[in-house]
């Protein structure tokens, strides 16, 4: 069965973006971008909310046409365009670039999606992650901690009564100071060890 994997960059104090959606503090160099490309190219689809999707769709479809976006950035443009995408939105009528619009997070529909063949599903966006977490639909967390304190902004995890027991599945540090913390459900760790 495919897994839903939340992949997000955060500041050391837990924010995914600063005020006014500022992500200028993200330290994405060629090493980290190449890592993202390797991980995301193996996925079976991208799951995002409307805001995240519109931000991505506003840049990536033609990013590789700009000569200043060489290397890993140009490579990701092709990955993003070709990857099947589900955007969860109650207001978006249609979306381009291999994208299907879904109105709500329905647990039975997500479980059916996970049962389909193909690679794992990359989940992006704090609001959508909260809805998936509320229904206990996230199998793995890959949190990329950037070495910066931004003081305020949008947190990755909003307050909830939902508790999720996780086990450390791996760590990796990058040359720019970013550290990947990878956590899975305990049963995912057991299944991987078989």
Mean pLDDT score, rounded?
Answer: 92
Our count of helices gives: 6
Q: Which secondary-structure class do the elements indicate?
A: alpha/beta
Give me the strand/helix succession. Answer: EEHEHHEEHEHEEEEH
Q: How is the main sheet built?
A: 8 strands, mixed
General form: globular
Number of strands: 10
- Round the Cα radius of gyration to an integer and report it: 16 Å
Residues in β-strands, percent: 25-35%
The portion of residues assigned to helices is: 25-40%
| Distance linking N and C termini | 15 Å
Strand order of the largest sheet: 5-4-3-6-1-7-10-9
Unreliable stretches covering 5 or more consecutive residues: none
Which keywords apply here?
single chain; 194 residues; alpha/beta; eight-stranded mixed β-sheet; two-stranded antiparallel sheet; 29% helix; globular
Summed up:
This protein has 194 residues and is α/β, with parallel strands linked by helices.
Structural write-up:
The structure is a single chain. With 194 residues, this protein is α/β, with parallel strands linked by helices. Helices cover 29% and strands 26% of the residues. It is built from 6 helices and 10 strands. It has helices at residues 30-41, 50-57, 72-82, 107-115, 126-134, 186-192, and strands spanning 4-11, 15-17, 45-49, 85-88, 99-102, 121-124, 140-146, 154-155, 167-173, 179-184. The chain has an 8-stranded mixed sheet with strand order 5-4-3-6-1-7-10-9. The protein has a two-stranded antiparallel sheet with strand order 2-8. Strand 9 (167-173) and strand 10 form a beta hairpin. Helix 1 (30-41) runs parallel beside helix 3 (72-82). The two termini are 15 Å apart.
């Amino acid at each position: 069965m495919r897994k839903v994997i939340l992949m997000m960059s955060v500041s050391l104090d837990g924010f995914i973006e600063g005020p006014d959606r500022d992500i200028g503090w993200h330290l994405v160099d060629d090493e980290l971008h190449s890592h993202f490309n390797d991980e995301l190219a193996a996925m079976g689809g991208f799951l995002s909310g409307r805001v995240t999707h519109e931000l991505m769709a506003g840049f990536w479809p033609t990013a590789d046409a700009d000569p200043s976006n060489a290397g890993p950035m140009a490579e990701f443009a092709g990955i993003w365009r070709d990857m099947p995408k589900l955007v969860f939105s109650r207001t978006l009528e249609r979306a381009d670039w291999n994208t299907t619009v879904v109105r709500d997070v329905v647990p039975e529909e997500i479980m059916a999606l996970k049962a389909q063949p193909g690679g794992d599903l990359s989940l992006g966006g704090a609001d959508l992650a909260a809805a998936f977490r509320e229904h206990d639909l996230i199998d793995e967390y890959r949190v990329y901690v950037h070495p910066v304190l931004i003081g305020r902004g949008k947190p990755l995890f909003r307050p909830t009564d939902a508790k999720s027991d996780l086990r450390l599945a791996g760590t990796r540090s990058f040359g720019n100071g970013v550290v990947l913390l990878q956590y899975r459900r305990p049963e995912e760790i057991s299944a991987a060890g078989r």
